[in-house]
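Researcher: Here's my situation. A collaborator sent me these components and asked whether they could plausibly form a single complex. I don't have experimental data yet, so a predicted model of the whole assembly would be a useful starting point for our discussion.
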Amino acid sequence: MYGPSIDRLITALRVMPGIGAKSAQRIALQLLERNRDGAAELAASLIDAVDKVGNCSSCRTLCEGERCTICSDSRRSAQQLCIVETPADLFAIEQAGGYSGHYFVLMGHLSPIDGIGPEEIGLPILEAKLASGEVDELILATNLTVEGETTAHYISSRARAAGVAVSRIAHGVPLGGELEYIDSNTLSLAMQSRKVI
Amino acid sequence: MYGPSIDRLITALRVMPGIGAKSAQRIALQLLERNRDGAAELAASLIDAVDKVGNCSSCRTLCEGERCTICSDSRRSAQQLCIVETPADLFAIEQAGGYSGHYFVLMGHLSPIDGIGPEEIGLPILEAKLASGEVDELILATNLTVEGETTAHYISSRARAAGVAVSRIAHGVPLGGELEYIDSNTLSLAMQSRKVI
């Protein structure tokens, strides 16, 4: 409708999550009207990132180079291994601070209906790590969704078979959460998971 | 935080209107995790569009080539000239159908506080068009905002000085609008602008 190059750009912009037809059109026109330098820099940085960013050979997170900064950091302990679904989850835990072990990033979760089995989420690599004997504790930090729970359950059974201790991060009422405004599923989970003090 | 290439991509993504820090991070990670072909195509189409898309020499809208398809269409009348603020406004009127004249795209509106005067919105080109005598009627379709109204007022005074008839698109209750849900400014405008039937 706007000519071949603009139409192609509008279509290409829709690969981004959360960007629909109207937003893509608005972004394309605004970049071309007002910020061509920004558009050129965006193109260059996309090419650069696609070219340079790969996966860490040890933990599978997105990184530039063979191993990520966490896996290459000799001050961090390889005895603790925290399992997360995505690089964003890894960085959320890093930002919270306090954890000084290694990570393993699944890049997804088990979902047989979408054809995602143990191979696709890198479990053979994880099992090799567990068999090597360097891991003492596996901390499961997958999401509290049906798929995340299934994945956690599957991994914990494999870890126990390999003789590695397994834990799951705590779920319940968040800090500063007022009971009045917490959803009832979280609240009933918090009641069930109550701890003796 | 994620390494230089990913950080650069996250920063570059923020040139897009409506994309903040969190969305940029989510988009960058998701493209790199799941859709590298889409990211490469986005980069290529940005470069292509920045390279090929310019402004129509006659109406200033975004187009590929010297003159846009509307200005080059001999079936359209150059006697009517519709003034809009942006290419998106032009395409909205085209999609509505029924108008077969030419357009003039201001690429903004008068806004002295931002340093946008008559020069910046192409009024010298418009005045040359009006002076040439080929335009019979000027239709003002700028937005109904303070800046849009000011721009419309300024242009209408210049058009009258050049002896060209000026009209403004109608404003009031939209089709299918229920009075109960229309904002009171629109409603009071619709009352003031009532027509004898």
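Model: Some features of this prediction you could bring to your collaborator: The two ends of chain A are 67 Å apart (CA to CA). The mean pLDDT of chain A is 91.
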